[in-house]
Amino acid sequence: MRAALSVFLKDLRLEGRSKDVLSTTLFFAGLVVLIMGFAFGPDTAKMRDAAAGVLWCALAFASVLAANRAWAGEQESGALESLLLYPVAHEWLYLGKAAANALLMLILGVVTAALTAIFFDVHFASLGLLALTLALGVLGLSLVTTFYSAITVNLRAKEALLPVLSFPIIIPVMIGAVKSTVLLSGGFNPDDYWAWTRLLLGFDVVTLLVATFAFPHAVES
User: Fold this and answer.
1) What are the domain boundaries of the chain?
2) CB atoms < 10 A from the CB of 107, how many?
3) How many CA atoms lie within 13 A of 171 on its CB side?
4) Per the UniProt record, which residue ranges are transmembrane (predicted)?
5) Which is it for the CA torsion 28, 140, 46, 190, positive or negative?
6) Distance CA 197, CA 182 (A)
């Protein structure tokens, strides 16, 4: 547990100094929202219908960028081998990295949701429930992309392989997150919302257990 916390805090300190991940992903996500806003405008109805999909597509691609930088930064600094040889269970390294990525993605998600609301003229039924959807959604994205980023970090085509491996796995997250966000942005139905939220929560729990168990075997091989 202490090792996971150390990795988590280290990544946040590095990001606090460099702003590398947040600046890159925020620029990318903002660009996606802006371009799609122009593409769907000026039809307000179409823009509102597309808002949830645009938001989560931007976050999905941004999560790949963030996860890639999380492990590539260790490799470029020559610290990756030392980190993997550190005498602690590798599960804690994964959990620390995934938690740091999830927190950064949550910050990005809040900013991107605000941009989406502005450019797509969307009004959310509950900011608290939107925050819950963002938290569960970006956690699922981060768990998957952090896992596959560690596997592909030493490969020559890691930038291409990471989305190829990650995107098929995150389909349930994307469906649940988009459906939940659509309900929050119009025609809110509590029963439907909580059904999709349970899907997100279930995916996060299963992915957390499977990825944590598989991570040591994946990086050691």
Assistant:
1) 2-9+18-220
2) 17
3) 4
4) 21-41, 53-71, 92-120, 126-148, 160-178, 193-215
5) negative
6) 12
Q: CA 184, CA 204: separation in Å to the nearest integer?
A: 21
Q: Is 202 exposed, middle or buried (0-12, 13-18, 19+ CB in 10 A)?
A: middle
Phi then psi for 124, rounded to 5 degrees? -85, 140
Say how many C-beta atoms besides its own lie within 10 A of residue 165's C-beta: 17
- Residue 24 φ/ψ, nearest 5 degrees: -65, -50
Q: What is the largest CA-CA distance in the chain?
A: 58
What tokens does 3 get? 């090792």
Pick from 134, 132, 122: nearest CA to 186: 122
Angle at 7 between CA 142 and CA 208, to 5 degrees: 35
Is residue 134 within 8 Å of residue 102, measured between CB atoms?
no
Question: Do residues 37 and 120 lie in contact, with contact meaning Cβ atoms separated by under 8 Å?
Answer: yes
In angstroms and rounded to an integer, the radius of gyration of the C-alpha atoms of the chain is 18
CB 51 within 8 A of CB 120: yes
Question: Do the Cβ atoms of 104 and 62 come closer than 8 Å?
Answer: no
* Helix, coil or strand: residue 137: helix
Instruction: Give the separation between CA 214 and CA 170, rounded to whole angstroms.
Output: 17
Q: What is the pTM of this model?
A: 0.91
Whether 47 has a pLDDT exceeding 80, the answer reads yes
Tokens 């122009």 locate to 38
